[in-house]
Design goal:
elongated, 5-stranded antiparallel beta sheet, alpha+beta
């Protein structure tokens, strides 16, 4: 049996639907600005010294280090929501999740409280 031909537009739409979770996720400019504002505060206080930003399929991660040669103290991750739609933010201390929210400011507030204590 031969397969029915499909239009290029239909092929691209099907491919995009199947690859949605495989595409790298990035921080938006305002999100990165909020993270950098908090990061800068703690660098000036001498508590944090380095950061890294990583992008992978379905997740963007901002890692915070006390020293460049250590494991990250904290990570702020942006990833696809549980349903595969929308976004959620998660802050981790090492491997332990501290806060999960659809709102970045909630996650950063939890991080700020944790660092101050």
């Amino acid at each position: 049996m031969s397969e029915q031909p499909i239009s290029i537009a239909d092929f691209r739409a099907q491919r995009a639907k199947g690859n949605r979770a495989r595409k790298p996720l990035y921080f938006q400019r305002d999100e990165l600005s909020s993270i950098m504002q908090l990061y800068s505060h703690y660098v000036a206080a001498g508590q944090w010294r380095d950061y890294a930003i990583d992008f992978a399929p379905g997740v963007a991660v901002f890692s915070i280090f006390k020293n460049a040669h250590e494991q990250p103290m904290f990570t702020v991750a942006k990833r696809l929501g549980p349903s595969g739609k929308g976004r959620e933010f998660v802050v981790h201390e090492g491997m332990k999740p501290l806060k999960r929210s659809e709102n970045l400011s909630d996650v950063l507030r939890a991080l700020d409280i944790k660092v101050k204590n």
